[in-house]
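Hey, quick one: can you model this chain's 3D structure?
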Amino acid sequence: MADTKIPSGTAGREPGAVDRPGRPSALPNLRRTRARATAGTGRLAALLVSPTLLVLTIVVIYPTLMALNESLYGPKGLDPETGFINNTEPFVGLKNYTDIFTRAGDRFWNAFWNTTLFTVVTVLLETVIGVAMALIMHKAFRGRAVVRASILVPWAIPTAISGLLWRWIFNADGIANVLVGHQVLWTADGFSAKIAVIIADVWKTAPFIGLLVLAGLQVIPKEVYEAARIDGAAAWGRFRHITLPLVKPALMVAVLFRCLDALRMFDLPYILIGAQKNSAETLSMLAQNEASNVRFGPASAYAVLLFLYVFLIALAFVRLLGADLVGDGGVSTRRERRSGRRGAVALRRAEVTA
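Sure thing. Here's the predicted structure for all 354 residues.
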């Protein structure tokens, strides 16, 4: 059998590679260049994201872990077993959580349903009113700048100032009773207090949704509306089939932000109605009340439960309504990976045969 000698430079080459006289293969160099570029891009991405991760760790992760740890301890005071006063917070495990659902269950569930009611009603009203505000601000007419400024003024006012203003309006001799025509104790403990909180919150934050929806409206090309108008589409048809689908991403982000903000509602009902009133007490107010009475363990337990509630609502919102805030879902990601691999193979073949 004759000896076969493999020419130098061809060992380890992929099948199908074609040698040209006087031109060495560029595939190994191309692979090394791609690897260096990928590593450099990864390091740059990590460097750019690191400040954000540091801020999130300081502002979100660390306080959450500290609250979870604090919720496992009880308040200082007289130890019922020994009869001595505790100078340190005793470790009680999950007792604070079990007390919430047993001994303090009535107050917790009242605050839970108040928070849920305020969130659902205010976000629904704010969405409808905010979309109407955005459509008005998007129209071209004389004095549009004045209308935009007047619509955005309530959102620019601090919440504490807004609560004081509405408290004057809902006084016994305020404007609200003058318009209603009879005496209503708006800021007392009752159903009227819920109505007062809802009205004040909708007035305060509906412009926020209107502002985000307006940003979505301004990126819709005018040619789309002109083509629909030529095809004979009415105003309601254009709004339903063009405006709403194209503005949906901005609207979903606005609704999500408002849901998360309403679930943490504290300052407006606290200033407008007052503390420890069953009709307007929210989970944030309940946690603050426990902390102000130096019961940091139960307060932390309420805060942890509120965090879980907000997290589950955000997760359900993203999953069910399709508000993809972090990237495409798993199906589209797999498709992109497959298409990316096909593109890489085609590119390699083209480079080999070039």
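One thing worth noting: The two ends are 36 Å apart (CA to CA).
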